[in-house]
Specification:
two-stranded antiparallel sheet; elongated; mainly alpha
Length: about 100
């Protein structure tokens, strides 16, 4: 991620951090992130991109010298292949 994009994400995040904390606009962004416990956006964006590539796209990723294999992570459970409205509920006999 480029430096310019990191700065843009940081400036966007700072606006919301100021509203959350009620701090002065001169408070450093890093201090606001520490106070709120909110992670900076650029590492979070990298984390999400890596997760999507591994878990959803099932691609092998190398990040900071470490290799991540899709087979090391659980696959998403497939949803129903039949729509619930197509269930034949009228053929079920109810005993009384």
């Amino acid at each position: 991620m480029g430096k310019k994009l990191e700065e843009k994400l940081s400036s966007i995040q700072k606006i919301f951090l100021l509203y959350i904390t009620g701090s002065f606009r001169t408070t450093p962004t890093a201090a606001l992130q520490t106070i709120t416990g909110i992670m900076p956006l650029h590492p979070k964006a990298q984390q999400e991109a890596i997760f999507i590539k591994i878990a959803c796209l099932r691609k092998e990723i190398e990040f900071e010298g470490l290799s991540y294999q899709p087979r090391d992570y659980e696959e998403k459970i497939k949803s129903l292949t039949i729509h619930p409205s197509l269930f034949n509920i009228y053929s079920i006999k109810i005993r009384r």
